[in-house]
Amino acid sequence: MNTTVHTDATTSPLFRPARLAGLDLPNRLVMAPMTRNRADAQGVPRSIMATYYAQRASAGLIIAEAATPNAVGLTYPHIPAIFDPDHVAGWRRVTDAVRAEGGRMFLQLQHGGRVGHPDNSGFTPLAPSAIPLPEPIHTPGGPREAVVPRAMTLDDIRSTVADFAVAARNAIDAGFAGVEVHSANGYLLHQFLGRNTNHRTDAYGGPVAHRTRFTLEVVRAVVDAIGADRVGVRISPGVTANGMAEGDTEAIYPPLVAALAELEPAYLHVVMADPDQPVFREIRRLWTGTLIANPNLGWGRPLPADGGRHAGERLLAAGADLISLGRAFLANPDLVDRLRTGAPLNPIRDAYLMYTGGEEGYIDYPTLQADQDRVLASTTH
Q: What is the pTM for the complete model shown?
């Protein structure tokens, strides 16, 4: 498929308006969910999180970082949650701040599964099978060897599905326009999909139709709780994050996507999307609704100078409807204006600042206007 596009910033389809879930989006740029570890120790969003998201309200849509639907699902220290009233109140301050700046937000719901540690959550992690994460995990005391998770019982599965539904209702109460169910990047729902993480022999393991069952049950419960037009789903075909090795990617995703389409959620969000890959083209063929594509800019590679604009335009030409960007939004609160005008982007600072918990490397990235004001001040004194 030839998806070469030639545009300048002023004519880019990224800046055309769109409509999603009853929302009018001023552009097709989505701020991808990115864990930043700025909640308090109980998972309550802090005031700097309201500032951070409000700074980026010019995005067509913000998908807020992963929030856990229950305590055992916590992954790392200072991850936000959405299972008790204090979490709802904290997120309400965030959504109010974003709405005041004209923005729109969904909240990603994520259960870590085996990506967790008792030092973080107070619980032994749950997972499809008792197979540990093959790498250390960060805790308040520093990196720790991953523990062997407890294989989920059928009661655990039922209660977790119910927790996702409650979390979705909590998110709406907190002022979000909807939620994104996270079935990607090696967390719990993705763990059910992968052969290397799911060794079950019951109705949730083995054949593809069994391994996709948990994701479908969670999405169905969330749709029933808040309505299909308020629900998105994130998938990551072939992504190996957190020790994943699906084993049969081409077999998993066509039936999963077809079954999800029957539930009619508002969108499907594909991580590390590549318009040249057959699995992406097959997903686009099967998915009849809005497709958000996250460009494959490479794990650990430097951010391209255009922040992913060209890659996003190729995906739009290949059939995507909206484009999600992560690191570019992290370092550029006014990313939409910078991409629209062709202005240079702020470089991302040292990677550790992404997760340190303070204002540095979080809410202190300058806007173009701030840079201009600083230059003007220096020339008038």
A: 0.94
